[in-house]
Amino acid sequence: MSIIDESGAAAAGNVKDGTDQSFMVDVIEASKEQPVLVDFWAPWCGPCKTLGPVIERAVDENAGKVKLVKINIDENPGVAGQLGVRSIPAVFAFNGGQPVDGFMGALPEGQVKQFIEKILGGTDGAKAIEEALDQAEAAAQSGDIGTAAQIYAAIVNEEPQNVRAIAGLARCYLANGDKERAEMTLDMIPEDKKNDPAVKSVMTAMELTADAPPADEFADRIAAVDANPGDHEARFALAEALIAAGRNEDGADQLLTILQAKMDWNEGKAKEKLLQVFEAAGPTDPVTVEGRRRLSSLLFA
């Protein structure tokens, strides 16, 4: 077991060893604050050794929103007997002082994560957070950056390690031109969450907006395209300028114009830039949704 050392003591944090005597405090009472998973195991159980590190890691990834209590049934057969445990590993989820779900056997990591997500999704607090995140995202996409930032900040105050909220708040700062505060906000992301899609999306957006040209150069790029609409290099330069200025929709339109004329122009340079725009905007942004639709129509025409 990755959390339990050779002496059998669990590491402090979101995972702990439990006993029949501590069950009321560790599980029943604790589950009134947040969901608690109970893993019934034994040292001789091979599948338990497989499941142990998987469920411990999945619990730790949720940063305190769910706890795990591990009970060795050889030493503590009482509660397991009361719950009718006949095969191990057996996992029970408790919420509000009551068992609400469970599974038996060494499930793969993906299914364990889905199980935990299901348990968390059933709590009023988790539902409220998800609804607030959706509201913030909708506000940002409609251009109401102030409202979005307020909602994201409130969520971060409630859940300091909520990656989606931190990334959303950073995006709001970036939309207002405050790249320094956007970077400072992203520094709040735990190291093991740096590759989260929401985080990578904001980081890509920061890269794309790093070199916005001055106003006079911007005008020159527009004039170059107007003078020669078939000059893909000039159109690509205009697209880069538009994207750097935060005008993703206009920039994507210029890139799609190039792709419509020549899909493999400059070894796929326009398509690569367009995919960066999609990543920076996020999967649900209208720029991404409409842009992917138009790109698909060109690819599969």
What's the short story on this structure?
The chain has 14 helices and five strands. It is an alpha/beta fold. The chain has three domains: 108 residues, Glutaredoxin (3-Layer(aba) Sandwich), CATH 3.40.30.10; 72 residues, Alpha Horseshoe (Serine Threonine Protein Phosphatase 5, Tetratricopeptide repeat), CATH 1.25.40; 85 residues, Tetratricopeptide repeat domain (Serine Threonine Protein Phosphatase 5, Tetratricopeptide repeat).
The percent of residues in helical segments reads 55-70%
**Helix-strand topology string:** EHEHEHEEHHHHHHHHHHH
CATH fold-level name of the largest domain: Glutaredoxin
Low-pLDDT runs: 1-12
Number of domains: 3
Gross CATH architecture of the largest domain: 3-Layer(aba) Sandwich
Under the CATH scheme, which class of the largest domain? Alpha Beta
Rg calc: 25 Å
CATH H-level superfamily of the largest domain: Glutaredoxin
Keywords:
Glutaredoxin; single chain; Serine Threonine Protein Phosphatase 5, Tetratricopeptide repeat; alpha/beta; disordered N terminus; 14 helices; 301 residues
